[in-house]
Amino acid sequence: MCDVATVQKIANCLGVNPGKVQLNEEQVVTRTSGQKKSVAGFATILESLASESKSETAQNSKTSREVEAQVYQWIEFSVLYVAPGSKDKYVSKQLLADFNKLFASKSYLVGHFITLADLAVYYAINDLVKSLSPVEKEAYLNLSRWFDHLQNRPDVHQGEPLLNFTTIYLHGWATGTHI
Amino acid sequence: MIIYTNEGNPLGLQLLMLAKFAKRPVQVQLVNLNDVKYKDLLALPTLELDSGLRLFSPAAIAKYLLVDEGQLRDEWLEWSATLLAPALAHHMAVGHKADANALPVLNALVKKLDDSLKSSPFLAGDKLSAADIAVWSLLAPDGTLKGAQNVDSLRDWYGRIKALPEVQQVLAEQPLKDLTFNALQQSNRYGGLHHVPLKRLSLADAGKLLVDTTPTVADTVTDEEISAAKAAFTYTAPKEIKEQKTVLPKAGERNVLITSALPYVNNVPHLGNIIGCVLSADIYARYSRSAGYNTLLICGTDEYGTATENKALAENLTPREICDKYFELHNAIYRWFGIGFDYFGRTTTQEQTDIVQEAFKDVLKSGYIITESVEQLLCQKCDRFLADRFVEGTCPHLGCGYEDARGDQCDKCGKLVNATELIRPRCKVCNSAPVLRSSDQLFIDLPKAEPQLKEWVDKSEGGWTHNAKVITRAWLKEGLKPRCITRDLKWGIPVPHEGFEKKVFYVWFDAPFGYVSMTKRYTKEYQQWWQPAKGTDVELFQFMAKDNVPFHSVVWPSVLLAINKGHTLVSHIMATEYLNYEDGKFSKSRGIGVFGNDAQETGIPADVWRFYLASARPEGQDSSFSWNDLAARNNSELLNNLGNFVNRALVFCEKNFNSTVPEVATTQDELVLLALINRELKGYINSLEKAKLRDGIRHLLAISRHGNGYMQTQQPWVLLKGSDDQKKRASTIIALCVNIACLLANLLFPYMPTTARTLFGQLNAKQTPLNAEKPLATLLLPAGHKIGKPAPLFAKLEQSFIDELKGKYGGAQETKAAAQSQPSAADLEQAVQAQADKVRQLKASTKDKAVWQPEVTKLLELKKQLEGAKKTAPNPAPAPAPTSSNGVQSVQDLEKAIQEQGDKVRRLKGSTKDKAVWQPEVNILLDLKKKLEAAQKAAKAGPAAAVPAPSAAPSADAGQVKALEDKIAQQAEKVRTLKASGDASVWKPEVDALLALKNQLTALTGIPAAGSQGKSKKKK
Predict the structure, then answer these.
(1) Domain check: are B65 and B177 in the same one?
(2) Which one of B437, B528, B619, B721 has the minimum C-beta count within 10 Å?
(3) Can you tell me which residues the record assigns to a coiled coil (chain A) (predicted)?
């Protein structure tokens, strides 16, 4: 998913008008909102969106300076590692493993609530998760749980078809092999 | 706070600076991500706050540590982390990760910085902000701005920040020179930032701002090296290399005694024997002499023993006549190869007899000889005991009964035979039946000598090659056993001991003393070498193949230690591994391989053989003789590298300076070149001091490569047409090149003496001694020196000629067979397809790797063949590089050519580590890339050619395009159906096939195929 589409999705999610979102001459995403103010850079745009939003997710993302810093670092991580890395066989494997390990002990990336960090990584990793076979999804069980939890939120899936994770839960009850 | 980072990580600098500006104390901890202790760290550097919270994004840390400084700052922070840092990582990458596209991108980024700084003193306005710190700390490591042009505002800004006291303090703790973007590869588990694609910038070419820092070795030259090179490059009248009539060791000087393993007289030596001993010894000896050491090189033929007796019987000659005949053969071969023995002798001399008998008496006297009885067959008619090979009879093995079995082995059943067990044995000479007799033999008591030997080995093995150490250790570990030193033969040295008059010494007891006896033939003062007086040190270097090691490291030293008369013991055992012939073995009987006399018949000069054999010397591991390799090295290294450089230098001097060497006025360029040459010179000396002849050649060729590169960049032919100052530069360049040629002649001498002499003739110079203590290039030919007449030194070896030789000396059978049965590319493609289907089915049906693995192997093999077939098949496409109307190769063609050449280079690099092999291909590749850059620029200049429209690709054949498009449609359909089934392992290969087809189409038409697969496009 490209930066422009993701920004629009996240803006919807936060209930903010995305304004005009496009790529500039450096192929960097920019946002020009109502007041003709332009912002460049994915992470910086997300911050500007959050500052305009009253949504729960936006509020969660700025509860403290520590939270803000962590949210920012995950947004940057999604830009620098997740989005480009998903297209690389080796890097994507490592990313899946790292996130799976991370979600073994927590439900959200930062703190105990959904933040922009989750949204950024969710949209960045979407295509990669979509390409996984049921067996692979099972192998990354913690990641799958987090992903499935997020995708079931209407503000997140925004009408897109949901990915199927059901066999995983089935597997918990009855051990067997998948197709 | 703690910063966890890895060594050299440039981002660590950013965190240190941020902490310093935020006035927060911080400590740095260097970690390795592979360390289990740090398995929870995702990326380095990571900052651990006092609260325990960990942050790994420098931008997040900047925002956290410093107060909010506005949106502009935040934009720059993000820009530096997501655009600048990846671009730098790409730019600094080396090896297969090197990316030629990084520089234009980086130039555009730098231009943006410079433009911003033109209008405001700092990136985010009038005040220093975290943005400045972030960007500065990325530009500082690796000297990105070094030599950059037209970025004055950026430079000014860079200088202002560097001067800040906080920055100075940080740099004092963390020197810039320790940082490099290459360290990012170890900063996370994703291989650094290489997965981040370079943004294809749509803005106009920013022009050349940064220096193209495709890392050059010249950058690594230190000031110390420069000043050393400068100081050394002066003229001193050379000392003549003294040639004494008889070389003797001298007290207080370095004395080097060199032996080469004695070749057995009736074997014709093959190339492996030659490089294994005599040639290696000769190259080393020549080096040793030119380094000014007192050097003696001794060798000769080993002539006594059963094999000679047998051969004599076969050829109906006496053993003496056989030895005379074969000795001449050896002598002629070595002379042709230019082996400069001080003495090439033989073991069948009176001196040998005297020395061996005396040695035996000494060993006997010191009590190291024991007598034991051994059962042997005696032929009463011939009056001698029969060696195994002299008995024939009926094979004793059940069910064989072959009547002509030999005493050591039955030719019919192939089993080993004990001569005494043969049924109805008969003497091979007179056919009468021998009788079994026990005969007393003398043994040397090696176990008794073992403690002394062990002590000596511990002390001496430091100078031995690895294999010599290993073999010796293995022998000692097993424990030594008494070894028989006598034989019931006639052709040998009589044993001077009562009751043993009819026996002779076994060859391995007598042969090593050949080194001593041959020295005695050379000079009456031989004892100065072999039993030197106190105060005179003689180093003994013995060259051999590894099968000879035990005799030189265990048996002979034991004998000498038993004698205990202060003999020179070997200090350097230089054992080689084996040289194979085109990946098989040399075999005289099957006519496979090149033997000493064959080399002469090929017409290839002896020096080229010497050069090739030395550069393929089996040092450390077995190596192979290959005709193609021989041709490649001759053509690329000797002809194109060394010969080309030397000849160009001399011809320039002859034509433009009336054969007179001009004055050298060194500038920085010359000093850098000299410093680089000095490095190689040092490497050359170090290698040859350890008799690592292969490495020596590498360094020698590197010097001429540096010379070539220097001439190519300086372009004296252009300067010669310029102003007076430029002409002066040209004369310096030529004078330096001629001097380097003279240095090369000196370094070449050990390897290629004839060529070196020719070169000295062309230079009108004499050989100058090498200074091993201070290996620095000096001015060898001062201004005013008249050179001789230059002429090419080497000739090209044509492939047709090489193929002819290949056929003549074997090793061609398999290539011929391959050519006949080579299936066409189309057949292979079909086979690959079928096999791939089979594999997929198998993989889907079972998880058992044992089942499908063999099929996968087959598939891979087929694919390899296909690749090979495609390569050799005549290219159906039009001429590979058609030129566009203005004579410049079109961008597309060049890109294709680059792609092909790149593949070739990767293959080569994959198949061999030898830079000499792939370097020329790399050069071609670089050249192509340069052309592409030029073409791209030209394309941009001319608006008509700016977009590669379909019509601009005349090579695309409409029919071909149609066929491909149909294929793509089919394949896409297949993929869609398969994907519906869900299993990625099933449809993945098909998707790949689809993508490959699309690439083909793109290559054909120049426009990317639109398609359902472009996920990113679809989602927009």
Answers:
(1) yes
(2) B721
(3) none
Quote the minimal CA–CA distance from A144 to chain B in Å.
17
Mutation pick from B195, B202, B203, B979 vs chain A, by most beta carbons of A within 10 Å, is B195
Q: Out of A76, A85, A133, whose CB is closest to B59?
A: A76
Q: What is the pLDDT of residues B408-430, one digit of tens each?
A: 777 777 777 778 888 888 888 78
Nearest CA in chain B to A69: B60
pLDDT in tens, B766-789: 999 898 888 999 999 999 999 999
- How many Å apart are CA B342 and CA B340, to the nearest integer? 6
Cα B421 vs. chain centroid, distance in angstroms? Answer: 52
Distance CA B990, CA B983 (A): 12
Q: Are residues B32 and B139 in the same domain?
A: yes
Whether B856 and B905 share a structural domain: no
Chain B interface mutation, best of A3, A42, A44, A68, highest count of B Cβ atoms under 10 Å: A44
Mean pLDDT by 10 residues, chain A (179 residues): 85 90 86 80 92 90 92 94 88 93 92 93 93 84 91 89 71 47
CB atoms within 10 A of CB B837: 12
My answer on whether B52 and B117 are in the same domain is yes
* ipTM confidence score: 0.92
Q: What is the mean pLDDT of chain B?
A: 82
Q: Using the beta-carbon criterion (under 8 Å), do A133 and B982 form an inter-chain contact?
A: yes
Q: What are φ and ψ of residue B551, in 5° steps?
A: -70, -30
For chain B, how many structural domains are there in total? 6
Indicate whether B10 and B152 sit together in one domain. Answer: yes
Q: What is the pLDDT of residue B979?
A: 63
Q: Is residue B412 part of a domain?
A: no
B453: confidence class by pLDDT, cuts 50, 70, 90: very high
Give me the pLDDT at residue B814, please. Answer: 40
CATH class of the domain defined by A3-173: mainly alpha
- 3-state secondary structure (DSSP) of residue B345: strand
Q: How far is B204 from chain A (nearest CA, A)?
A: 9
**Rounded (5°) CA angle B939-B943-B949:** 75
- As a whole-number percent, the residues of chain B with pLDDT over 70 amount to 81
Q: Which residue has the tokens 């310029």?
A: B722
pLDDT bracket for residue B241 (50, 70, 90): low
Predicted local confidence at residue B822, as pLDDT:
47
* CATH at B771: 1.10.730.10
Structural domain boundaries, residue B749: 626-801
What's the gap in Å between the CA of B980 and the closest CA on chain A?
Answer: 12
Whichever domain contains B166, its CATH number is 1.20.1050.130
CB contact under 8 A, B61 and A69: yes
B809 domain-assigned: no
Is B193 domain-assigned?
A: yes
Contact B1020 A2 (CB under 8 A): yes
Whole-number Cα distances in Å, B471 to A93, B260, B456, B465:
47, 19, 15, 10
Please check whether residues B477 and B540 belong to one and the same domain.
Answer: yes
Question: For the segment B820-839, what is each residue's pLDDT rounded down to a tens digit?
Answer: 444 556 666 667 777 777 66
Contact A26 B1019 (CB under 8 A): no
Alpha helices in B93-187 (DSSP H): 102-119, 130-139, 152-163, 165-173
DSSP 8-state assignment for residue B873 = S
CB contacts of B983 in chain A (<8 Å) are 133, 179
The answer to whether residues B270 and B193 belong to one domain is no
With a CB cutoff of 8 Å and minimum separation 6, the contacts of A154 are none
Q: Which residue of A has its CA nearest to B844?
A: A179
B51, A90: Cβ pair inside 8 Å?
no
Q: Which of A44, A84, A87 has its CB closest to that of B75?
A: A44
* DSSP track, B809-868: TS--HHHHHHHHT---HHHHHHHHHHHHHHHHHHHHH---HHHHHHHHHHHHHHHHHHHH
pLDDT band at B209 (very low <50, low <70, confident <90, very high): low
CB nearest to B42's CB, from A72, A90, A98: A98
Any domain includes B421? no
Candidates A26, A39, A76; nearest CB to B57: A76
B523: domain CATH number is 3.40.50.620
Q: What is the pLDDT of residue B386?
A: 80
> Given a cut of 70, is residue B911 above it in pLDDT?
no
Bridge partners of residue B391, in order along the sequence: B427
Same domain, B150 and B273: no
Contact residues, chain A, for B49 at CB < 8 Å: 66
Q: How near does any CA of chain B get to the CA of A173, in Å?
A: 23
